[in-house]
Design goal:
mainly alpha, 3 helices, 53% helix
């Protein structure tokens, strides 16, 4: 930064000893150290503020690009009125319609194993155990 070599530091130290004196040198060095610390803290705080502003500007630019790209993609591929698949693979009724009929109401047999285990065990579920008859013991 300042490009001060060893000889320049030696000259500065000799001049400081002659001007300040050896008796007051520790106090002067302590004061200089405090000032240097304050300057470093202020410069670090300033640098942090600048970095934060740059990051915010970059984020705004990226958000603008994302919005433009999203608008372009949405214009190329308009959303379609899609029906979400139900758990059993059939499609749910469109919004505002009647709820889908149960498998029994549609005349389909119920899925294997669903409900049978509950009937056998009396409807009691035991955490950590498979549905079915409770273990003997």
């Amino acid at each position: 930064m300042f490009d001060i070599g060893a000889t320049e530091l030696l000259v500065i130290a000799i001049v400081a000893i002659l001007v300040i004196g050896p008796k007051d040198m520790p106090l002067a060095l302590r004061t200089a150290g405090r000032w240097i610390g304050k300057v470093r803290r202020v410069s670090a705080h300033f640098r942090t503020g600048i970095d934060a502003m740059v990051r915010e500007a970059e984020m705004e630019d990226m958000e603008k690009k994302w919005r433009e790209q999203n608008a372009r993609i949405m214009a190329q591929h308009p959303p379609q009125d899609m029906e979400a698949p139900d758990i059993d693979g059939s499609h749910a009724a469109p919004s505002g319609g009647a709820p889908p009929a149960s498998a029994e109401a549609r005349g389909e047999p119920p899925a294997a194993g669903i409900g049978e285990a509950d009937r056998e065990s009396g409807g009691e579920d035991q955490p950590g155990l498979p549905l079915g008859k409770p273990p003997a013991g």
